[in-house]
User: Fold Pur operon repressor PurR from Limosilactobacillus coleohominis 101-4-CHN.
Amino acid sequence: MKVRRSNRLVDMTRYLLDHPRELVSLKFFGHRYDSAKSSISEDLSIIRNTVERWGVGRLETLPGASGGARLTPLYSKKNAATVIDELVQAVNDDSRLLPGGYVYLSDLLGRPDILREVGRLIATQYVDQDVDVIMTVETKGIPIAQSVAMYLNRPFVIVRNSSHITEGSTVSVNYVSGSSQRIKKMELSRRTMKEGANVVVVDDFLKGGGTMNGMKSLIQEFGAHLVGMTAFAEGQFDGERLVEDCTSLIKVDAQDGVNRHLSAQPGNYLEKVFKK
Assistant:
């Protein structure tokens, strides 16, 4: 049964969004809507112009028998700046300050709307790079990694502080916590990542960089490659961080003690992702 263009556009956009960064053949859409390839090509042009105009994605079309269309969700610089400003306003609250200079973020990282925005922001940073796996450590980094993995259409793996019997044999490393200078241990199942994989590391909070550095060591143990590291929030740290070149969406200045105060501002995300 022939499908009207308005209905095709809605369903085609939905399908492409549900299969991000996946090449979908024009033949597939032709059979799906009982329409000619020329009509499908016109529909894709409308979708391309729309997502680019609003700065929410990039639609590529590849010619030939093995070609098709691929939608990559991302944020334009303008949209990214708007989202980061909203995150700064949400975090900029003295009541979020915890002992030790940490910041309470669980309520924000439990909201689907914020996780979608954070996931798309981080995915935008790596859309033009070859990524195989998203890595995070257990606890609050999990929902962020899951959102990033959804937009990049790649699996995510969870590094644990102790192994579970259901995960089989594991690879473990000892690392030094950047803030407490304590030696800790993290483990990852051997089956979760292949040698030579390209890995993006994400976490909720960066302070001394010990956890990030531990995951970096774990990637080396697997013979994999580190593509980049991104944290939702970066806190102040007196001393030398254990990792360099880490991207942060927001930066917080937390002053604990008698004069408790917390202020948030944009991190280095915009200057690192939109260099031009």
User: Anything to note?
Assistant: The longest helix spans residues 37-54. The first strand starts at residue 57 and ends at 62.
